[in-house]
Amino acid sequence: MSGFFDTKIEFLKGVGPQKAELLNKELSIFTYGDLLQHYPFRYEDRSKFYKIRELQPDLENVQVIARIRKIELVGVGGKRRLVAYVADETGEMEMTWFKGIQWVQKKLPVGAVYIFFGKPAQFGRKWSIAHPEMEPLSQATEKRNTFQPVYSSTDKLRARFLDSRGISKILEGLIQVCYPHISETLSQEVLDQYQLIGKREAVKEIHFPSEPGLLQRARKRLKFEEFFFLQLRLLMMKVSRTEKFRGQILDNTELLTDFYQNHIPFELTGAQKRVIREAYHDLKSGKQMNRLVQGDVGSGKTMVAFICMLIAISSGTQACLMAPTEILANQHYEGLKEFADMMGLKISILTGSVKKSARKIIHEELLNGELKILIGTHALLEDVVQFKNLGLAIVDEQHRFGVAQRAKLWAKNEEFIPHVLVMTATPIPRTLAMTLYGDLDVSVIDELPAGRKPIQTVHRYEKDRLKVFGFINEEVKKGRQVYIVYPLIEDSEKLDLKSLMDGYESIARAFPQYPLSIVHGAMKSEDKDYEMQRFVKGETKIMVATTVIEVGVNVPNASVMIIENAERFGLSQLHQLRGRVGRGAEQSYCVLMSKYELSKDSRIRLETMVRTNDGFEIADVDLRLRGPGDLMGTQQSGITDLLIADLSKDAPILTLARDAAQQILANDPHLTQPVNAPILRQVKQQKKTAVNWSRIS
Ligand code: ADP
Ligand code: MG
Q1: Residue 695: per-residue pLDDT
Q2: Which of 81, 127, 293, 537 is 20–30 Å from 53 (CA)?
Q3: Are 338 and 474 within one domain?
Q4: 3-state DSSP of 500-514
Q5: Residue-by-residue DSSP string for 230-296
Q6: Confidence band, pLDDT 50/70/90 cuts, at residue 338
Q7: How do 147-150 and 42-45 pair as beta strands?
Q8: Confidence of residue 1 (pLDDT cuts 50, 70, 90)
């Protein structure tokens, strides 16, 4: 059956080789199936007609019924255009063509009445529409729909009369030949339970809606289907993984209890406790854990990680934590060493700059099991790093690591794959998480430790600079520390370095009394660390940096974050940067400096930052501004292949589709029951063309 939909588009009536080639090139439409899935991107209400006198600036596309009074070629050379002067009983206007002039000229008879459609523009007092769609009034049939589909097209296609209307025409022919071949992809149970219309009807209605209600149902059905199969594939991956890999049973909580009763420096938040319980449930289940912990910056992910390590260790295994940068690995090491020492547990750090002799000791102690916790960068992944029994591998800020790197971590235990806990502070909207990480279990730390004061954020311009400097001065006098961050964009690295250096100099001039640090990407990693350490220890008061400080660094005494050229940063990056402050008991501030003229999107980004500290709300705005294709990790996920469903708008349908997929797999994990036959057929069909799902990160 799929064979039929693979038929080349050139064999369709009214297409032919030339148009087919253009459709291939311009819209990647090669086959019947491709064209059938070239869904309209919106619909136009064609029940309304305008009189010429009613035309107004700001109107979108309108329909006008008018008689052609005169046709004329105007101008010469490249500016040549065809003008039709048309009129109704209220006035006159012009229709103009710059391309396809000969064809139009032949087609338009003076004296005939046409329905013209397009966006009106005003020149002087005269209205005109360039390249209108048109149809003789006499031919406008009754079945002509009030809801007209609008298809994306291109200039080249339009020049060949494959405008939205032309595409609709060939689709008419296509639907006729395809209709009997369209088969159902969902089971009757799913159709009934979610009150979805059949596939055939949905495809027909999406292209040729018979009434608004049915169109709505057709859209819902097709969106549901897209989400459903996306979720189904992810969940099936999870099923096959849990079947393949057992997990070590890690269920001893002795160390945890000791730590909790005698050493923990603060009360855990409710959210931290919940996430620990969720992880513990996995660790003792006998199945391998693959869990993502999402928590906004400062939500206390490190403590969750440490407590999970304690469970792993008292159950007789070892634990490791991998961080994306040396600065971050060091910071984790320093922080966790204090706790590990209290508990009498041996902990080490392994990064690129650890000396050979020290490495050797680490390797030995890992193998004989003396070393319980290893912190490090991707140096952990080297083959020489072998554990006696690695029970738990934790990855911090996972989006910085590729999947291949994570797979290497898995291989660190031959008998059992280690349990994996992945932590990220990049807030991902729930809808996206469901899709991106559909094969992982997700825990969310959605609560900040008590007593945190929300960071106050303001937006300032160059003219406010003196005031901002005055504010910095006051804060430093109170004993606080300050970050000043400059953008770094790869293709203009030199320029950015210059603006960073200029900034550094002006700050040095403004604050000769305060020691400064500077950190940027072009520095050697030892120098970066050295500067960073001086700031951590409080020896320097102001840190001038590029976004290298974005991830994870923890300096609770820093209370002010100044972001220069804030309009050049993405929303999630701004949020990450702001998360560097507000980690101590003091009131913290974030100042977004920008130029005066801002694009609409930049303005929304800055306003959002000023309005809220909630990472998930920010992520939602980000998703709406950029679309999912731009977000981290989505490129390989197949999300960008969605044809009709929209992650930022169709969250409720996604949730339904996920529930449906879950329910089906719970009863029939391999889709072998007869009722699920249509679903299985579709899964197999898609497998042939699907992206490599194992690459989801
Ligand atoms: P992130 O989730 O961004 O990695 P961290 O784990 O670095 O956050 O924690 C941020 C700060 O909050 C650290 O100084 C940590 O000690 C502190 N912290 C974590 N949990 C709590 C808690 N329950 N109560 C008070 N402070 C906490
Ligand atoms: Mg962290």
Answers
A1: 33
A2: 81
A3: no
A4: HHHHHHHHHHHCCCC
A5: HHHHHHHHHHHHHHH-B-------HHHHHHHHHT-SSPPPHHHHHHHHHHHHHHTSSBPPEEEEEE-
A6: very high
A7: antiparallel
A8: very low
Q: Give the percent of the chain with pLDDT over 90.
A: 56
Ligand number nearest to the C-alpha of 295 = 1
**Where does ligand 1 bind, in terms of residues with CB under 6 Å?**
266, 268-269, 272, 295, 297-303, 425, 449, 554, 556, 583
What is the CATH classification number for the domain harbouring 467? 3.40.50.300
List the domain range (segments joined by +) for residue 369.
254-445
Look at 44-58, 557-571, 582-596 and tell me which has the smallest mean pLDDT: 44-58
Ligand 1 centroid, distance to 449 Cα (angstroms): 7
Q: Is 543 helix (H, G, I), strand (E, B) or coil?
A: strand
Residue nearest to atom 15 of ligand 1 (CA): 300
- Give the pLDDT band of residue 635 (cuts 50, 70, 90): very low
* pLDDT classification of 692: cutoffs 50, 70, 90: very low
- Mutate-to-test residue for ligand 1 from 259, 269, 294, 299, highest number of ligand atoms within 8 A of CB: 299
- For residue 299, the CA-to-ligand 1 centroid distance in Å is 6
Are residue 75 and residue 114 in the same domain, yes or no?
yes
Ligand 1 atom nearest residue 445's Cα: 2
User: At 689, which amino acid appears?
Assistant: T
Q: Of the residues 144, 174, 207, which one is the last residue of a structural domain? A: 144
Which atom belonging to ligand 1 lies closest to the Cα atom of 583? Answer: 11
Residues near ion ligand 2 (CB < 5 Å) are: 552
Q: How far apart are CA 257 and CA 310, in angstroms?
A: 9
Quick one: which ligand is closest to 336's CA? 1
Determine contact, residues 632/399, Cβ cutoff 8 Å. Answer: yes
